[in-house]
Amino acid sequence: MTDTTIRTYNGEVSEAEAETEEVESETTCPECGGRLVTDTEHGETVCTDCGLVVEEDSIDRGPEWRAFDSAERDRKSRVGAPTTTMMHDKGLSTNIGWQDKDAYGKALSSRQRAKMQRLRTWNERFRTRDSKERNLKQALGEIDRMASALGLPENVRETASVIYRRALNEDLLPGRSIEGVATAALYAAARQAGTPRSLDEVTMVSRIDKMELTRTYRYIIRQLNLEIKPADPESYVPRFASDLDLSDEVERRARELLRNARDTGLLSGKSPVGLAAAAIYAAALLSNEKVTQSQVSEVANISEVTIRNRYKELLEASEVTAAL
Predict the structure, then answer these.
(1) Are residues 49 and 128 in the same domain?
(2) What Pfam family is a match for this entry (predicted)?
(3) Which residues contact 30 (CB under 8 A, 6 or more apart)?
């Protein structure tokens, strides 16, 4: 028997069991075994069954003020915004407001305005003291601009910022442009989050060409060991259906066509964007909703020839699945 073993009248209890019992004793009443609750108003821990006060005078870690709505809470709060990776300094630095007014709302004199403008200039210089911070500031601004143009959510921007920071810390930028690595990070983040955008869509809002994007993207995911699955055609369906103002029935049929194509092995080696666009077109035809190949082509940014070829293959795969 080791030193960490606890002996009882029934036998021996292991260390893990002892820890489990200790945790359970912290949440149950020592007298009756009832459930313990915390009374924040009185600072006490009380049993709900027998009323035993197990702990008193606990520390209140909340604010000393009260608020009855979100506006009042924001007005009384004395803390800053949470840290974020989307800013080069993680949002911890201060900003000097652009309004030339004092604390009472009165306009500043010309001498004070000139002084505040100098302070803003020096504050901006101190925020980016070295080349690494200037690089990061430019790249994160580029990521935010492209993400806004592509309609990507905040979690994708956060992930792209983390990927770019990793690339910068591991010294992957020499020989590559800031815009190229930032665009590749955003493209990878969108695919990781399950809200992918096609290469053509990303290239349209980027300052680099498609070839540089694909080359930089492959280099980044290889060097950072990013695990990114191939894009699922179904992830494009809701966006295309929304842009074309199609019904939920069309979206459901498009997903069904893609699942049938997956079962027959049709998805391998084909563009997910083209398959999603073809599925939308075929589903609209099956649902008797008006949509042309040119409209789908414009929304998906692919050729009408691709849509014609793929939608026939999807219908054939659906017939094969139905026959099986």
Answers:
(1) no
(2) Zn_Ribbon_TF
(3) 52, 54
